[in-house]
Design goal:
single chain; 4 helices
Length: 69
Amino acid sequence: MADIELTGELVKLEQQAWTEIQAGALTIPTATAVQAAITAHATDSGQPRYEVEKALKKLVRHPAEDAEG
């Protein structure tokens, strides 16, 4: 499968959510915003939603793995 291209806004939203998760303070508005943005990006790009979410979480939560390939 081709690489998933992620927008800066999508990455920013996931970074915010990940920060809140790590602090034990994820809010419903943040979670909803991230999920809506993932769905919209998947629809607009024609990529499977699951693959978009997986690539996004890997980039934000495991950046060292992404750099290694």
